Amino acid sequence: MDCGIITSKSILLFISLVFWAAGAVLACISAYLINSYDNFDSFIHDKYTLIPAAIIIGISVMLIFFGLVGCCATIKESKVGLSFFFLIIMLIFAAEVVALVLSFVYHRKINEDLERSMNDIFTRYNGQDADSKAIDALQTQLQCCGVKNYSSWSNTTWYRSHNNTVPLSCCKNSTTPCTGRLDQPDLLNQKGCETVLELLLKNALTYAMMIILCFAIIKFFGMLSICVITCKNGSLRNGYEHLYA
C-alpha cells in the first residue's frame, strides 16, 4: 500500500479521535477562563474580553460532534463524508485563527480595562456594598492591597474617614494584630491587586491561546491528509483503500 495513503489515513483516524479529547480540553480551558473573569467581574467592565472564551466553547462543542463525523467518514470510506470532513476542518481552523487573533487583541487590552475599573471601584469602597465585599475578597484571596500597592488607599474616601487606615482585608495572615495603618507596612500585603489580577487573567488567556494554536496545527495536517487521499484515489480510480488491507 502507498506510504502516503497509509500515513494520511492514520492521521485522519488519529485526528477524529483527538477531536473528542480536544473538545473536552477546550471546554475545560474556556470554563477556567470564564471562571477567572467571573470571579472578578466587578473589576472588568469590558465584557468583550469574554469573546475569545465564548468562541472556544463553540469550538469545543463542534469538535466533539465532528469527531464522530470524521470517524464515520473514515470507517465507511465515504468520499462525500471525507469532503464534508474537510469542510468541517477548514471551518474550525478558520474559527481557531479568529480566536487566536481576538485573544491576542484582548490580551493587550486587559491592563487598560483593569486600571480604569479598579481605580473607580476602589475609590467608592465603603466596606458594605457588593463592590466593597468583592474588593475584600480580592485582597484576601490574592493577598494584595490597593490598586498599585497599599499606598493607593491614601487617595480614597475610606482612608480619610477611617483614621488613615486601609481595610483589614489588606492585612497579612499573621499572629500580630493588624490595624490597617500605613505605618505598619510589614503587616500589610505588599503587592498591588491590579498587577496580581492582570497576571492571573493574562496567564489564563495565554494558556488558551497555546491550546488553540496546537489544535490549529493539527487541523492543517488533517486538511493536507484529505487532499492526499483524494488525489491518490482520483488517480488510481480504485476507491478508498482499507487501512489494514
What does the model show?
Helices cover 69% and strands 0% of the residues. It is built from six helices and no strands. The termini are close together.
Please supply descriptive tags for the structure shown above:
mainly alpha, single chain, 6 helices, disordered C terminus, 245 residues
Brief summary:
The protein has helices at 3-39, 51-75, 79-123, 130-142, 157-161, 193-236. By secondary structure, the protein is mainly alpha-helical.
Instruction: Report the order of strands and helices.
Output: HHHHHH
Determine Rg (CA atoms, Å). Answer: 26 Å
Fraction of residues in helix: 55-70%
Distance between the terminal alpha carbons, to the nearest Å?
Answer: 8 Å
The low-confidence parts are 237-245
Specify the number of helices.
6
Mean pLDDT: 79
Major sheet details: none
Beta percentage is: under 5%
Structural class: mainly alpha
**Strand count:** 0
What are the SSEs and their pairings?
Layout: H1 3-39, H2 51-75, H3 79-123, H4 130-142, H5 157-161, H6 193-236
Helix pairs in contact: 1-2, 1-6, 2-3, 3-6
